[in-house]
Amino acid sequence: xxxxxxxxxxxxxxxxxxxxxxxxxxxxxxxxxxxxxxxxxxxxxxxxxxxxxxxxxxxxxxxxxxxxxxxxxxxxxxxxxxxxxxxxxxxxxxxxxxxxxxxx
Length: 104
Known about the structure:
- This protein is α/β, with parallel strands linked by helices.
- The chain has one domain (22-101).
- It has 2 helices and 4 strands.
- The chain has helices at 22-31, 67-80, and strands spanning 36-38, 57-60, 90-93, 98-101.
- A 4-stranded mixed sheet has the order 1-2-3-4.
- The longest helix is centred in the C-terminal third of the chain and has 14 residues, at 67-80.
């Protein structure tokens, strides 16, 4: 879906990182200069992942974190948000709102 919208994307499985610990996934994401899109709360620590110290994090928090609800949320974000402007930001998206923390 992201590729169809013109975004340059990779997935954890495509990069051979499935099952790897978070620090390995994080390191590869940062080395490739990509926004990390995740539902993993391990990436929610704003002190550890301060805006401006990375290429961006989109944390998706859904009441029903099923694949279909995740796809619905991502589709909505693609249609309504400027994902490119989130570089360096810490973003939390829910069913109802998007909160963006920009670098200081």
